[in-house]
Design goal:
By secondary structure, the chain is mainly alpha-helical. The protein has helices spanning 8-29, 36-41, 48-59, 62-75, 77-84, 87-103, 110-118, 120-153, 157-205, 208-218, 228-247, 249-257, 263-274, 276-291, 301-350, 356-378, 385-390, 393-397, 400-408, 414-434, 437-457.
Length: 478
């Protein structure tokens, strides 16, 4: 590992300052989260500016700022472009968000829709996928926080990871989705400005032309137009990103929190803003080749380049960017996972008679439980960020077509959705372990699409689903 560029005293000072800022902002924005709807869906009154900002901030995760340079280092220009296709997940979700808000004006979770639309069996599979994905995302970002501090300043991995998870849990616990969306607005500004400043500073010392010449000489494969694995990764990442957004309660809770008519426009704008971010961040992976840096971990190439070129200033900028991006996603996941646990597990099976005040307390405790479980899973450093996150890829990709069919086709059946998710996930996991992560989500989505298309072609004899039943405020507990 390279020598840390950020003095440990300065690192602890920055960590303390940003932690206090996020907690204060969380308390300020979350002061209206006393009721259950305020805690879970921010009173269903989020406007355009906050709606777009929270989508951008949540999607600019540590995986964007740290994994984009890694994919560029491993797959070249196509790796950079492959990650940017995740923006299409937000854009494609825009019409779904508008329809979700219209069909479920009193809804709280994605799993609630699956249960009402497809029944118990599909709900069980969907919940398993959702919770596994949420944990994978949480673990990947908890790891990123600990690795960032360890690489840049020498702060021990466990201490840094613990503090970041703890801070996010505190302000999410206090303010729920109000606090999450409010802090996301500030965090999105920090991330966008910080990334641009770092990359511009790097190009001032290592011009783009020089980077191109160096990469062409040292690793020409990174510039090849026909790089088979990278080309597959483009479509894989596109479908992985769609699966992440379409199924995750992180995004459904935002769709349900926005005012009527806002969700579609907010998600479309967020996708357009997010599109260039992985390309800008991914450039650091090519710069590492030009600089000839010894890379200790591929998922830390971005921070190492910034530190090598800009010294302590670069380390500070990277620290601010990644800390903000980590916080903006961890808080969203903690809130969304808490919603699933509270409404779909505790309320559905254990405390069916609980009122909103009691559920509000359960939701707060669920935030703490999710953070604690993520902390335990982060302790062993389960591989690289890519390996942790992309394991969930084939699972979430299998849900794309059942969700689309369930929202738009009244004759889509539960049996078709169930087989599509199970078959897609199974084939995708087989490809993940047998071929590689870069093809797993693609295989899963293709199989799920074929099953869904076949099921829809034979569904004319089934009675159409009455979408008006989704508007009920009552959650079905059967």
């Amino acid at each position: 590992m390279s020598r840390p560029e950020l003095p440990i005293e300065l690192a602890w000072g920055l960590l303390a300052a940003m932690s206090l800022l996020w907690i204060w902002l969380g308390r300020f924005w979350g002061r209206r989260a006393r009721e259950l709807d305020g805690f879970m869906v921010a009173g269903r009154n989020v406007g355009m500016a906050l709606g777009a900002a929270t989508a951008v901030a949540t999607w600019i995760t540590s995986n964007t700022t740290m994994l984009a340079p890694q994919l560029t280092l491993e797959f070249g220009v196509w790796g950079m472009l492959a990650y940017s296709t995740a923006s299409l997940g937000l854009v494609a979700f825009a019409p779904l968000a508008a329809r979700i808000r219209r069909l479920m004006p009193h809804g709280h979770t994605a799993a609630e829709f699956i249960h009402r639309r497809y029944g118990r069996a599909c709900w069980v599979v969907f919940m398993a996928i959702s919770l596994l994905y949420a944990l994978a995302w949480l673990v990947s970002m908890g790891m990123a926080g600990g690795l960032l501090l360890e690489t840049l300043s020498g702060i021990p991995y466990v201490q840094g990871m613990t503090l970041i998870l703890g801070v996010c849990a505190v302000y999410t616990l206090v303010g729920g989705l109000y606090a999450v969306i409010g802090t996301d607005f500030i965090q999105s500004l920090v991330v966008l400005v910080g990334i641009v400043v770092v990359v511009v500073a790097v190009t001032q010392q290592v011009p783009i032309a020089e980077v191109h010449e160096s990469v062409a000489a040292k690793r020409p494969a990174l510039l090849q137009v026909f790089f088979p694995a990278a080309l597959i990764a483009v479509f894989n990442n596109l479908l992985f990103g769609m699966g992440e957004v379409f199924h995750s309660n992180v995004w459904w809770s935002r769709a349900l929190a926005m005012r009527p008519g806002v969700g579609g426009r907010a998600f479309a704008l967020a996708g357009a803003i997010w599109l260039p971010v992985p390309i800008i961040a991914g450039f650091l992976g090519l710069a590492a080749v030009a600089l000839g840096l010894p890379i200790s971990r591929p998922d830390m190439v971005g921070p190492q380049v910034a530190s090598a070129v800009l010294g302590s200033v670069g380390a500070v900028l990277v620290f601010l960017v990644v800390f903000a991006s980590i916080a903006s996603s961890i808080d969203s996941l903690l809130a969304a996972t808490s919603d699933l646990v509270t409404k779909e597990l505790v309320h559905r099976f254990w405390r069916r008679d609980a009122d909103d005040a009691q559920l509000r307390k359960i939701a707060a405790r669920s935030v703490v439980g999710a953070a604690l479980l993520a902390w335990l899973l982060c302790l062993p450093k389960l591989g690289t960020l890519a390996s942790v996150l992309f394991l969930a890829g084939p699972l979430v990709a299998s849900t794309i077509w059942p969700i689309i069919a369930g929202l738009y086709w009244p004759r889509a059946t539960a049996s078709t959705a169930l087989v599509a998710m199970i078959a897609g996930s199974s084939v995708g996991l087989w490809v993940y372990f047998g071929v590689g992560w870069f093809a797993a989500s693609l295989a899963s989505a293709v199989v799920s699409a074929l099953v869904t298309a076949f099921g829809l072609s034979r569904s004319r004899r089934h009675a159409p689903f009455d979408f008006s039943t989704l508007a009920s405020a009552e959650q079905h507990a059967t």
